[in-house]
Amino acid sequence: METGKVYAIVGEDDAPSAALLWQTLLDASEKGAAATLISAPGMAEHLAQSGLQTKAHEALRRKSLAVFETVPPARSATPPTPAANLAHAHGLVQDLTYLERKTGRRAQLLVINGMDTLFPALDEATLRFWRTCAEQEDRAVVLLFREHARALSALRPMVHVVAGLAELKSRYGATTLGIFHWFHREGLLASRSVAVRQGSRGALEVCEPPRGTQASNALTTPPPAADEAQFIAMGSVFAPQEKAPSGWRITDDDLALVQALGEDAVAATFVLAFTPETDFDPLARCIYGLRKRGGPRVKILVREVGTRLRYNQETLAVRLGANLVVPAELSTARFLSLSTMVQGQVFPHSLPSSYEQALKTSMPEQERGYQPPAEFTRTVRAALAQSQVLGVQVALVRLPLAYGLQPLDALRYCTIKRAGDLCGADAASVYLFLYACRENDVDATLKRLFTLPVGELFTGDDRLLSPRAIEDALRDYDSRGASGRFPELTGELARLASAPGLAASSPSTVSSAPQESAAQPTPAASRARNTSASLSAAYVAPPPAVPAPLTLREPRAAVALATSSSDNAEGLAASDLSPMLSTHS
């Protein structure tokens, strides 16, 4: 890097990004150039991920490295304005200037870690401010972003402001460093991509090709294989009214036979079917076996026929070796076009050492449904880490309760059947963690999970989609849970599940009950009334049994109050830098 310039690095909240951050700081400090890190909350965990704690402590003792953690601006319903971003950036620089004058130590490298947390709505004026800061102070400024997809889309229109833009991406166990452009003392790097891995000492290392091979050999196109144009498809891939191409070999719906045909395959194309009668586990084993034996040039397609793979199943199929999953909505003509387009492709991912290992690292834990406060954050963190290995999208949704409702009143109408989907609660909100759920599918998932309309149970929703935002919310949940008492609803929900009369039901189900039940209560109905009375004692208003859809409250006063509170909080938010490891700063 070159002093007087600003650089942007887009990473993820994982070990390779942490290693890149801390190795950059340590390299600068070891070369005699003082380095300073200003980080969003979670810096201690970030350092632990890198495995470079010992070297970092040595640099702190030498005073060649200074580390600070700052509190981000208070969250509000509306994104911060460019003026608010500039005010926050000015505050950080003023605090840093004061500390440098006080200690007599000036950093030639400044790294801002967690830009997307400190500046949630990035704008060009903020980027230009940091570029001006780098030029005036004659130091290199590195802006590190943790939320990969959102940050990259925001930076692309402003790429002309920074002297370098790079991304660090991990997928399916392989990590790639991609350089869009990067100005340095010796010239310019552009459009470069290299495979990297985290070495035994924690630092990132470039994966070199094996000795005795040249880089040009790796790019040489292999000679055509004898089975390059061969298509082998299961019979159920085509519906009865569809006609298979004349050159295709159609086999019985026997996955063992398909695997046997793939014993000597080099570049053939195998087309498997996923139908309503298909068991996913044998299909996944077949995909893994074909890829393991055939190597990267074999093409494997999975066509959905009359049903759909779940999102996590689809991602696992690609992890195990599938080149493409063809959606059920596509016509036969489009399916045949896609099967032609994959010709010549080489499978780019590294395979797990065994099918069992892939299943263990890729599929969600068996926990599902309500988790008590002590277990909720632990279980969510485990599922979040698992989703990052596979690159599966997840969502944490916070649902503030409607006026007068308790968590139990809402959770009795929530039914979770899928492994990996979790829920928890504090005194005022219900939290839903949705594993393998795309952002566009959150609305449909909420409607499916609750038997009453979501708008009748909650005043709104706060959707957290990035690993960093979810981790920040979990940390806040833990801190509030330690200082206050959250409701523990395991016993009450188990009692509701075991008593049919207390099971969550929609208003239409209640109104369709037989008339004789009202005149002559059954034993189950009597137990329901007794249990309902005991629950009403614990949760005074309203009673847990909701006989009709809840009326929506008027939200204007609440919204005005929330807006006023968030504005005051934003005005009081300080940009004080809190020194970490104060004994060494």
TrEMBL record:
Residues 504-517 have a biased composition (Low complexity). InterPro entries: BcsE. The lineage of its organism: Bacteria, Pseudomonadati, Pseudomonadota, Betaproteobacteria, Burkholderiales. It comes from Hylemonella gracilis ATCC 19624. Pfam families: CBP_BcsE (PF10995). This is Cellulose biosynthesis protein BcsE. Residues 504-530, 563-585 are annotated as: Disordered. One of its GO terms (molecular function) is cyclic-di-GMP binding.
